[in-house]
Design goal:
Oligomer: single chain
Subcellular location: Cell inner membrane
Family: Belongs to the transglycosylase MltG family.
Protein name: Endolytic murein transglycosylase
EC number: 4.2.2.29
Distance between the termini: 118 Å
Radius of gyration: 31 Å
Keywords: Cell inner membrane, Cell membrane, Cell wall biogenesis/degradation, Lyase, Membrane, Transmembrane, Transmembrane helix
Largest sheet: 2 strands, antiparallel
Order of helices and strands: HEHHEHEHEHHHHHEEH
Strand order of the largest sheet: 1-2
């Protein structure tokens, strides 16, 4: 009787490798290629939900076709999922979905906070953004532990945050960023040009500069004008401070004109009737305005007026200022026509 011949070892290894490759391709296809997602979907994961609950919801929305296979994919990505709002594009595989959930690859939104806005204006802007959630007034159990915000406490910037971030959490992020800036200023020696001494005074003057000009190149010159007036014990006579007083801290006349009679309003923020700086900032300022105050231009200017081209004309004397003012009045007449 003849003995059966065993397969040569090399041939046996080749057959095993072949089957391993086939199985690997099948698994790659099942987990990493095959998709039941037929459209772009926004998927929300609430805090505290289990993997089983998420898998059941995914299957209900036809984003996966097998709960056990999805759980395997989750285990393969560390075994956890993170809460948040996710954009799941058409054709996304189960493995990629599990990977997104494991790494917290949540949908994001970009919030732009322009420089020179007041807190009231910033809150209006945040309330108008549908990618954020919640209210803007702090209180017990909210995302904003510090309730007494004043203008100058928030740092205007471009913020990229998770879609669904609470508005109070974003306000707190802005507050912390400004607080960090103050801490760095104090750490480096708390230098401020005479007669400024405190961070509040620096930011208060910066807020006036910020409201007077949007041109970065002009800010150090405008800062020098106000510093010169403070040193000479002159009233600052800054229109934006009157607007702040008239609008109860909104900082926007809503299209109404600022009239001469408005300059007489009895208010501590009115720099036409009061000497020195206002009690606090009149807006939230960016780095350019702060740097302009900390490093002002070296000038003897005491006056400035708009030049009709988006900038200003500066003068050392009142007589020159009146000449510049007359030119500006003529420009305004032409513009009004």
């Amino acid at each position: 009787m003849k003995k059966k011949k065993n397969l040569p070892l090399k041939k046996y290894i080749k057959i095993c490798c072949f089957f391993i490759i086939i199985i690997s391709f099948v698994l790659i296809y099942i987990f990493g290629v095959r998709s039941t997602v037929t459209r772009d979907v926004v998927f929300n994961i609430s805090k505290g939900v289990s993997v089983s609950e998420v898998a059941a919801q995914l299957q209900k929305q036809n984003l996966i076709d097998s709960i056990p296979l999805f759980k395997i994919a989750v285990r393969g990505n560390g075994g956890r999922i993170q809460s948040g709002q996710y954009d799941i594009p058409k054709g996304t595989s189960a493995w990629r979905i599990a990977d997104m959930f494991a790494n917290g690859d949540v949908a994001t939104t970009v919030i732009v906070i322009p420089e020179g806005l007041t807190i009231k204006q910033i809150k209006e802007l945040l309330l108008a953004d549908s990618d954020l959630t919640g209210g803007v007034e702090c209180g017990a159990g909210t995302d904003l532990p510090v309730c007494k915000l004043q203008d100058g406490d928030l740092f205007p910037d471009t913020y990229k945050v998770a879609r669904g971030t609470s508005r109070l959490a974003l306000l707190d992020l802005m507050r912390k960023k400004m607080s960090d800036l103050e801490a760095r200023w104090k750490k480096t020696g708390s230098f401020a040009p005479r007669p400024l001494k405190t961070w509040n005074e620096v930011v208060t003057l910066a807020s006036i500069v910020q409201k007077e000009t949007s041109k970065e190149s002009e800010m150090p010159i405008v800062a020098s004008v106000y510093l010169n007036r403070l040193r000479d014990n002159m009233r600052l006579q800054a229109d934006p401070t009157v607007v702040y007083a008239l609008t109860d801290g909104l900082g926007d006349m809503r299209g109404a004109a600022l009239l001469r009679e408005h300059l007489k309003i009895d208010n501590p923020y009115n720099t036409y009737t009061n000497y020195g700086l206002p009690p606090a900032p009149i807006a939230n300022v960016g780095l350019d305005a702060i740097h302009a105050v900390l490093q002002p231009a070296d000038t003897n200017y005491l006056f400035f007026v708009a030049d009709g081209k988006g900038g200003h004309k500066f003068a050392n004397t009142y007589e020159d200022h009146m000449k510049n003012h007359a030119i500006w009045r003529e420009i305004k007449k032409e513009l009004n026509k």
